[in-house]
Specification:
Elements: H1 6-9, E1 14-18, H2 23-34, E2 38-43, E3 54-57, H3 63-77, E4 82-85, H4 102-130, E5 133-138, H5 152-172, E6 177-184, H6 190-203, H7 207-217, H8 229-239, E7 251-254
Helix pairs in contact: 2-8, 3-4, 4-5, 6-7
Length: 262
């Protein structure tokens, strides 16, 4: 439970959450709204329900899609104080490097790296002018623990996003803007649950066995379960709040101990 004070922590702040219609994105939208922010959400598919002040439907993997969101948010909110680039994912086929065509690589870079770059470029000038702002880029533990079966391009794009985040933080930190990254491990979103169901059906076993197999593919999760979207949203709400004033240029891993190295 959040303390009652939390409902005012982000009062008066304007936020944009990309990929905000389901999973981790929807949980972030809810958590920032609960803290008093006016939240704009953007995604390809509209959510069934949302606590967002506004929702913009757009393909965030394209420059035109990003621009349509930027225009709508500027018009309605006049800019943002908080930007969470959460959109991402991999739609590549299984089969390792050989099945990754140029198109698959470009698709992975567009949604997992360039979407964040484009949103930052659009909203940073306003943040710099006001002298404050908080940006969070959602990366992945795959950027340091890459898998190859169907997510090689995704992992490489997230590694690029982490590197870009660090460089950007050095540039805009002195101007009052904090840039951080959050690297989730396996999180049981609706999409992850659908994958677990698919794997169970494919191998003729139950959901529990399929979930355990997926956890094993990461080398296991020491706490014995995947994360929940709300847990990632809680970390991000902290990072964009004044309580995290000294956290700058960091990437925080939230994975139940999955990454086995320091």
């Amino acid at each position: 439970m959040h303390s009652p004070a939390d409902s005012h922590e982000l009062a008066g702040k304007r936020a944009l959450v990309t990929g905000g219609s389901e999973g981790i994105g929807a949980a972030i939208v809810q958590r920032l709204s609960d803290a008093g922010a006016r939240v704009a959400a953007a995604a390809r598919q509209p959510p069934s329900k949302t606590s967002a002040t506004m929702f913009v439907e757009a393909d965030l993997s394209t420059a035109a899609g990003v621009q349509s969101v930027v225009s709508a948010v500027q018009e309605r909110l006049g800019g943002v104080d908080i930007l969470v680039s959460n959109v991402g994912g991999s739609g590549a086929p299984a089969g390792g490097f050989a099945v990754l065509s140029d198109e698959e690589w470009v698709r992975a870079l567009d949604i997992n790296l360039l979407s964040a770059v484009r949103f930052d470029r659009a909203f940073l000038p306003g943040m710099i002018e006001r002298g404050n702002g908080a940006i969070v880029h959602v990366t992945s533990i795959q950027r340091r623990l890459p898998l190859f079966e169907s997510t090689l391009a995704y992992a490489a794009a997230k590694a690029a996003l982490a590197n870009y985040s660090k460089g950007l933080s050095k540039e805009v930190g002195p101007k009052g803007i904090r840039v951080n990254a959050v690297a989730p491990g396996m999180i049981e979103t609706d999409a992850a649950r659908r994958m677990i169901h698919r794997l169970a059906a494919q191998h003729g076993n139950d959901e529990q066995v399929a979930r355990a197999a997926l956890m094993d593919s990461l080398g296991g999760i020491p706490i014995g379960r995947p994360g929940r979207p709300e847990e990632v949203a809680e970390l991000i709400a902290f990072l964009v709040s004044p309580r995290a004033a000294l956290i700058h240029g960091s990437e925080i891993v939230i994975d139940g101990g999955t990454v086995p190295t320091v």
